[in-house]
Amino acid sequence: MRILIADDEKELLELLRLSLERDWVVDTASDVDEVKGYLDAFTYSVVIVDRTFHGTDRAEELIRYTKRKNAQTAVLVLSALGDVDDKVEGFGYGADDYLEKPFDIKELRARIAALSRRFAVHKREIEGIEIDIDSQTLTQNGQPIVLSKNEHTLLFHLLSKSPQIVSREEILDALYDNPQNVTSNAVDEIVARLRKKLNPKVIKTIKTRGYVIEF
């Protein structure tokens, strides 16, 4: 899952990035134009946005921009403006959640996870292949695509990690009970079979790092 944090306090951005990047892909932006640039370039599950940038309330502008880009992106306002009227105003702008500063990082992490579940996409399409996340089934032109157990496990493991790059070692751990007894070439072979059944563009190879699926 990819999240974007927008705040003009650069030290806070760095602290949040370090705290959250072990769980999610985290981008940070400290001014409004930079925020919009990230929203133009990537699809986010959750966007965390401050109310004010350099003394000016830009939350409404950024929330509306985020929702225009992708209505399924959840927006959490993280702000020192925390009285009831401020929160009502933030929700009126279109925010999906509101957390007052100062905050506990555990609560922030829990709210991000809750928003991601609430706005979870249950069906995706990539290169003409329809993917039902809940039933873990694939179809193309109305016809089911049948995968072996290892092909299925590898594909949905990559999907669950998207847009993160997944190393061969992590894939081996997901596929086998005793991965130390299996060579990394086994992963390459399963990926090759998947590319034949699906589309070569579905799974991308990142040299020396592993594999990724990007929507």
Topology:
Layout lengths: L1 E5 L3 H11 L4 E5 L2 H10 L4 E4 L2 E2 L2 E2 L1 H11 L4 E6 L4 H10 L3 E4 L4 H14 L4 E4 L2 E4 L4 E4 L2 E2 L4 H13 L6 H8 L9 H13 L6 E3 L3 E3 L3
Helix pairs in contact: 2-3, 6-8
Largest sheet: 5 strands, parallel
CATH-derived architecture of the largest domain: 3-Layer(aba) Sandwich
| Shape field | elongated
The Cα radius of gyration reads: 20 Å
Query: What is the average per-residue confidence, as pLDDT, rounded to a whole number?
Result: 91
Helix content: 40-55%
Textual characterization of the structure:
This protein is of the alpha/beta class and 215 residues long. It folds into two domains: 117 residues, Rossmann fold (3-Layer(aba) Sandwich); 90 residues, Winged helix-like DNA-binding domain superfamily/Winged helix DNA-binding domain (Arc Repressor Mutant, subunit A, Orthogonal Bundle). It is built from eight helices and 13 strands. The strands form four sheets. Strands 2-1-3-6-7 form a five-stranded parallel β-sheet, sandwiched between helices. Strands 8-9-10-11 form a four-stranded antiparallel β-sheet, with no helix packed on it. A two-stranded antiparallel sheet has the order 4-5. α2 runs parallel beside α3 and α6 packs across α8. The mean pLDDT is 91.
